[in-house]
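Handout, section 4.2: multi-component inputs.
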Amino acid sequence: MHNDRFTTYYQSQKILPDGEWDVFMETAQSLNATLRDTHVPTLSNVEFEGQSIPPPVQIPWYPDGLAWQFNVPKKVLRKQPEFKGFHSFLVFETEVGNISRQEAVSMLPPLFMDVEPHHKVMDMCAAPGSKVVHHFPRLRILTRRRPLNSSKPSTRKTPSPPPRFPPAFSSQTTATTSARTSSSTSPRVSPAPALMVTNLDASIYPQLKLPSATNANKMETLLFDRILCDVPCSGDGTMRKNLGIWKTWQPMDGNGLHGLQLRILQRAMKMLAPRGRIVYSTCSLNPVENEAVIACALRNNPDFRLIDVSEKLPALHRRPGLTSWRPTDKSLCTTYDTYETFMATCAEGDAVKAKMTRGHWPPEDVEKLELPKCLRIYPHLQDTGGFFVAVLERSSTGMGTAAVEEAGEAAPRKREAEVDESVEIPESKKPRLDVDGVVKAEDDAEPPAETTSVAAEAATKNPAPPKAGKQKKGEGGGSFKENPYTYLAPNDPAILSSRAYISPPAFPSSNVLVRTPLPEGDAEPAPVRNMYITNALVKQLVTHNDYNRIRLTCAGTKVFTKQEAGRGADAQFRVLGEALPLIVPYTDPEAIVVGDFTTLRILVEKAYPLCAAFPDGGFKDAMTARGTGSHIARFPRELDSILSHDLILPLWKSTSSITLMIDKKAKSALSMRVFGKDITSPVKEKEPRGAEDAEGEGGEEEDAGPVVVSLEDVEEGLDAADAGGWSGRRCDGRRECIKLVWSRKNGRE
Ligand SMILES: C[S@@+](CC[C@H](N)C(=O)[O-])C[C@H]1O[C@@H](n2cnc3c(N)ncnc32)[C@H](O)[C@@H]1O
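Output:
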């Protein structure tokens, strides 16, 4: 990230000694620097089987050079040594979420959102989640004062003021989650204190209520500052990669999706705050899915206009939106100039079959809508997929602007479903509209049936998520069976037991929630296993909206989890690595143990290094003096030039060993970056028995500390080997954390 004002101001304040500014700025981009300075030079001038292989190049239009592109056959990645190493780097960094791989143009919509840290953001169709991650670097500015796992703890004794967490929302569907997450209903986004994930049909998204800012006794509806509508589409812009589309493409794909796309966009329009912005995008080239949708939405909502974004991303080659197009039906024989000519040729019922409505055609006042302000991206322009983006803004008053008002006069202003007027649609299939023409999406509203058979069409390509409150198991994503969201009292014993890390009262203890099932009858409440933290707005929304109604699948970020402490000791809460940026600002600096480079190597290399394995001195002494359980360690960059910044990592001390408590893949990624290769040992490694362990049968296993691996590892392990030797338990019902309880059956651990 770069900001001239920031640079000028802070350089003139001399907050850093001479010569340190560049290092300071580099820190923010350390991963990109690793890629640029370490990998790209080794990948230049590479030959494979007599062919020169081009190195990765930066995508010219992506801000700050943070996006890269390379075209290399799989064979090269597998066999050519430099590319093989680069591939491992990519795989590990992707696994831990530092890099995300996607079609270049898919990165466009978030760039046009102009999200600011205080914004409330909604992603209407978030699954599988690759665009949500692009909002976060900006949204997280305030949640992470320092980069993840790289912060230098404050030297102040007084805890820092609480971070402000901006809110983000995402509506998503279950059906497109990748195979890896198919058991989960969440898109692949990392949770954050400001994030809620709901699983609903975006076209009937319910209103979210929260107490009025001016009158606490009143409730008001949440309006968003930014909404992304990356809608389900025919996807024909991806034809370069999805070769199957060449076989199956037909105009009905787009015709059928138009209605759903329009309903999703118009629902977003109703949820947007004055002066707010909507980015509408598809990876389709079809004007019926693009300009036609925008035209209908603008005519029905005169308080919206298209924004001119021609100055934005100047290096992006684009073409303007169309002002004329000619829809066609299945026969493809004829394209029709107007809706009327189409209807004149139609036998009764054909229009419904063709899924065509008046809204598929350019309206008469098309010029007034300024459709050329939309962006069309074509594959040949810049070696990308095909894409469409429109950026819409709501007027400051919520009233129509002059130009659009005029356009609106020609249109039936109050009817969202203008597009359906001339098509005979069975009563049962019509959406229920409220007085403003909004599809009813409240508790009392029946979820509307599709206006045409668009949903059936959509379902084949992008299966829609289940409808609010009406699901049965197996119906579009399964039943909704989440545990309730319960905020703990600030003096709850679970929170108090985490005091080792946090310094109340500054820590926002009242924003800690748990997901334990409600006790039945007189039964004792289930013990707390995990604690999550949310920002204040998410707390308000969770407390004032029925989580079943909004099908809330995730809120906030997990910060503490219960850990068995070994034989004879009570279970304790341990802090999670991904929560450290949130927890460290509240942690007494004295509580953080400092390690050196050798210590870090031992922790990365060994799964359960014995306490005795560490060199005498600082770290070992400090850890010896501490009790068993969860600890936080800092590895300062000054100690070795290889570290470009401080690392802050979670540890677990058992009676005999000290374990680095990060996911195995994160550990490998860390190892690749710090040591240039993966020096980690397999989790199944058997540690030599130390003197302290020799006290009893099986003592080592119980004392060695937990193993944290990903679900995939377990699944692979179970698939690949005789499963009899393993038993796994999901800690939180999600993919990221597995505790393995192992036995010695079959001689395996
Ligand atoms: C173009 S994709 C979105 C991709 C996503 N923005 C990303 O970057 O990962 C459209 C998604 O919308 C989902 N979808 C389909 N019908 C939907 C509906 N009625 N409401 C919400 N999402 C829907 C599809 O399953 C698909 O995952």
